[in-house]
Amino acid sequence: MRPVHYWRCLLGIVEREALRFVNQRGRFISALVRPLVWLLIFATGFHFVLGVSIIPPYRTYVPYEVYIAPGLLGMIQLFQGMQSSLSMVYDREMGSMRTLLVSPLPRWYLLVGKLLAGVIVSVLQAYVFLAIAWFWEIEPPAIGYITVLPALILSGMMLGALGLLLSSAIRQLENFAGVMNFVIFPMFFASSALYPLWRVQEASLPLYYICNLNPFTHAVELIRFALYGEVDWVSAAAVVAALLVFMSLAIYGYDPGRGMMLRRAAAAE
Amino acid sequence: MSFSLNQAVFACRLPLLAALAAVTAGAARADTILVSNEKGNSITVLDAALKVIKTVPVGQRPRGIVLSKDGHTLYICASDDNEIEQLDLDDYTMKPPLPSGADPENFALHPDGRHLYVANEDNSLVTIVDIEQRRVVGEISVGVEPEGMGISPDGKWVVNTSETTNMAHFISNATHEVVANVLVDTRPRRAVWTADGKEVWVSSEIGGSVSIIDPETHKITHKITFAVPSVPKEAVQAVGIAITKDRKLAFVALGPANRVAVVDARTYEVTKYLLVGQRVWNLAFNRDESRLYTTNGVSNDISEIDVPNLRVLQSVPVGAEPWGVVVRP
């Protein structure tokens, strides 16, 4: 295998993901509508929730819309990560995954390729959201639009890796509703996406600890600081650590000789 | 020879421009922001980056503050000490205080730089103080609880507002007589002249409005009202006013609405509300009017507004209950 083969394979995976995304216009629109609904309806209802305290990276009082924007970027990436894992389950059910799995390239490489393809799509979605949000006065400094890119890539990879890990464990498409209930909603609500953690700490200390352990909280904080040209190193480290753990487990899970694929095959017999 | 000289001039030009830009920026950076803390009994001194340089203890309940004409002295209404204090801004020492009459809340400096017009909240008087002689040179009876003081740019007219009488009193400086009383909305606070002397803007705290008065006819020509989305109407209380010299923009502090309204000063339309700290009270521009500073009495901080871009840049803590703010260039 020469590098050109790796490259060609990666392009193939990315192209497939991009095609899937572009062709499913409904998916593109719903991926955007979801955070916009939160921004325009939910945030309007909670307009007065904040404005009583200044927390970093903000240097002054911010309306609630501005506070939840990074959380909604995280939400876009969380859903994209899960969508991507959904497509893996779909591919496996429909048999098209075999085309990929018979490739002579190493399995980990295929998974990383799949991950990167998903991240590219999620970063694009995030920027489209930021462009629309600008009209609702969510105006981070100009530099923030550049500095947020590495944060979006890193958090997108971490959430995508989580999606891959889940897809290796999900047997059927129908189980995806369970993922919504047991992964997406708890991760999203037990995080700093919708409310600052000092508020959570006031209300419930155990929940505060859970929020702090939630990798999604760190993805959101990483994005929040990056959007204002700053780096939250603790969150960056937490996101990288979570990425490594999820990806290793996903690679293990997809390993034909070991892991869950084998167990699943055994269960099917 | 001339060629090389030209080259040298050209080579010099860029660094020269850069140096010039640095000097201009340096001039902007040299601003000092001074804030009176009503509860903290102090003056907070901040640099242009809004870093607190110093906190100077002063008399009881400092409220109105005004910069002397030469910019070297800060006059402070020490309301509960019944005097006006003088803070030397070069070495931050106190100079001998000035008399003020009882309970001075707010005052204005006459364009001559020598006379202060003080509103004595408790005894319905405007007291005129000669700074050089350090004595009271006149008293004018006005309505109940006088507060706002505005002196016309030509120095001929003084406008005082009285909180309880709900009037703006026009006082002739030649005779020290009240020549007209203009009824405005409930609890008038500030009276601010436009730089061209053609209008007086009077804010009403309870009324939540700003009345624009023609100083020649003493008639209200316009009234600005405010409606901040998702803020109860009673929380919208107009207090501090700042109008740019070119009369294009005006800013009105809306008290417990925690917003500063941006007004097109030509059409009197409110174009935007900017979120700042709690109970925003008084406003002050820097010299080139690129920045506006607000005192936020309940959240104990001041906010900095980028005037050309109409954005709040930052809010930083000062002392307890910040009230007045001035910028020393």
Q: Keywords for this structure?
A:
heterodimer; A: 269 residues; 12 helices; globular; B: 329 residues; mainly beta; 4-stranded antiparallel sheet; 28 strands; 9% helix
Structural description of this entry:
The complex is a heterodimer of chains A (269) and B (329). Chain A has 269 residues and is mainly α. Chain A contains twelve helices and no strands. In chain A, helix 2 crosses helix 5. Chain A is globular, with a radius of gyration of 19 Å. The model of chain A has no long low-confidence stretch (mean pLDDT 85). Chain B has 329 residues and is mainly beta. Helix content of chain B is 9%, strand content 52%. Chain B contains one helix and 28 strands. Chain B has a four-stranded antiparallel β-sheet with strand order 3-2-1-28, with no helix packed on it. Chain B has a four-stranded antiparallel β-sheet with strand order 4-5-6-7, with no helix packed on it. In chain B, a hairpin with a 4-residue loop joins strand 10 and strand 11. The longest helix of chain B is centred in the first third of the chain and has 28 residues. Chain B is globular, with a radius of gyration of 21 Å. At the A-B interface, loops of A face strand 27 of B.
